[in-house]
Amino acid sequence: MFGNSDRSPYSGNVVDSLPGASSLGQFMVKVYGLLGVSLLISAGAAVWGMGPGLRIFGGHPILTAIAMFGTLFALMGVQRIPVVNILVMFFFAGLMGASLGPMLVGALSLRGGTTMVADSLLLTTAIFFSLSLYALVSRKSFSFLGSFLFTGLILVVILSVVQIFWHPLFLQAVVAGAGALVFSGLILFDTARILQSQEGEITPVMAVVTLYLDVLNLFVSLLRLFELFRGEE
């Protein structure tokens, strides 16, 4: 799928942009390798966020959000600086993972909570691998989905804000369901966009962060759906 190469996916400058079709396989191996490490860091940070970090991330949601957005903007600024970009990206992954701590504690406290978390994780994994494989094998352009997904994302964000002040069950289900559909679509769209990027258009670090956010938000949306439709609230 990715072509043969005796180079390690982590060798060389990790911020090299797509150099052409001959190196596309190596680029994607690098992206998926870094994505895997980022997700493992998030998983470890989530465990910490459920224990010692719960007071920090559970009691200061606004400060947590500011820290996450600040780190993301910082990453965009240092994405082409070797070593620094990787460190900032891993810190961002850890911060995002730890911020899930309060949500996971709430889910696990429900009857059948462990099963819901496990099912959400398995379904997220299945969706990600299926859609990624389809995009990699088909090499189709899904740019026609861009406007729809962007509109859907804006609606999810707006409804999520409304949900803070007014949260009937049907609205929560709409937000979670729409989020699951939008972020599933974004996995397909973003993977295809990365594959078809031109030289200098995207760096591995930003490709990783893009897919990471798609996966994380899909997991959160699916977990919320499981909570709602299993009648645990």
Structural overview:
The chain is mainly alpha-helical and 233 residues long. The protein has one domain. Helices cover 75% and strands 0% of the residues. The chain is built from nine helices and no strands. The protein has helices spanning 24-50, 54-59, 61-78, 84-99, 101-108, 113-138, 146-165, 169-195, 204-229. Helix 1 packs across helix 5 (101-108) and helix 3 (61-78) packs antiparallel against helix 4 (84-99). The N and C termini lie far apart (45 Å). 34% of the residues are buried.
Low-pLDDT windows of residues? 1-21
Helix content bin: over 70%
Number of helices: 9
Q: How many strand segments?
A: 0
What's the end-to-end separation, in Å? 45 Å
* Average pLDDT rating: 86
Q: What is the N-to-C order of secondary-structure elements (H for helix, E for strand)? A: HHHHHHHHH
| Coarse structural class | mainly alpha
Query: What coarse outline follows from CA principal-axis ratios?
Result: globular
Largest sheet composition: none
Q: How many structural domains does the protein architecture include?
A: 1
Share of β-strand residues: under 5%
